[in-house]
Amino acid sequence: MTRPLVIVFGGSRVYPGDDAYEEAYRLGALLARAGFTVGSGGYQGVMEAVSRGAREAGGHVVGYTCDIFEDVEPNPWLSEERRTRTLTERIERMAQEGDAFIALHGGIGTLAELTVVWNLLLLDHLGSKPFLLVGDEWLPLLETFREHTQMGSSAFQLVTPVATPEEAVAYLQARDLRPEEADA
Question: Is the dihedral of CA 60, 85, 15, 173 positive or negative?
Fold first, then answer.
C-alpha cells in the first residue's frame, strides 16, 4: 500500500545545530514513524533536516529537485529524486502529488511555495488537503494577510497554524489521509 505523501516546505539557509534544523529533523522522524512518506525540495537546510529525520527513522523520502540548481547536489537522505525543469514546475508537482502540506521556517522560496499551494487549495484545484504552518513565526504573517489584503475568511480556513511538529503529526494522524490515485 502506498503511504500518504506529506510535502514539507522550508528554507535552505538552516544548518545542523540551529533550532530550525532540529525542528525539521524531528518533524521528519515523527512523520516517518507515523507511516507517512516525506517529500521536500530535496536540497539543504530544512529540506535536508526533514529528509534526514525521516530516513533515519526508516521512512521513504522524496526530493523534488530542479534543473536550475545544476551546481547543487541533492541531499544524501533522499530515497527517491523527482527532477523538474523549473521552479514553477517543481512547486506544481509537489502540489499535485502531495496529500498534505507543512510549512516550516523559511524565506522567499518557502513563501512562494506556501502561497501557490494555498491559492490552488482556495481554487479547489487540489481537493481538500491539510496545510499546516508550524511555528509562531507564521502568526504575524497571517495577521498581515488578514489586515492588508483582500483575502476572505474562506482562505484562512484552508491553513492551520500549529506550534510544534508533534501537533502537526497529531493533526494529520487524526485525519483519514489516503494517497491520491496518481501516486499509487
Answer: negative
Position 182 confidence tier, pLDDT thresholds 50, 70, 90: very low
Q: Strand, coil or helix: what is 127? A: coil
- In this prediction the pTM is 0.94
What is the b/e burial string over 77-102, where b = at least 16 CB atoms within 10 angstroms of the residue's CB? bbeeeeebeebeebbbbbbebbbbbb
C-alpha cell at 90: 517543481
Q: Where in the chain are the domains?
A: 5-176
pLDDT > 60? residue 181: no
To the nearest whole number, what is the mean pLDDT of the chain? 94
Give the CATH number of domain 5-176; options: 3.40.50.740, 3.90.1150.10, 3.40.50.2000, 3.40.50.450: 3.40.50.450
Give the per-residue pLDDT at 1: 58
| pLDDT (0 to 100) of residue 69 | 94
Distance CA 112, CA 157 (A): 19
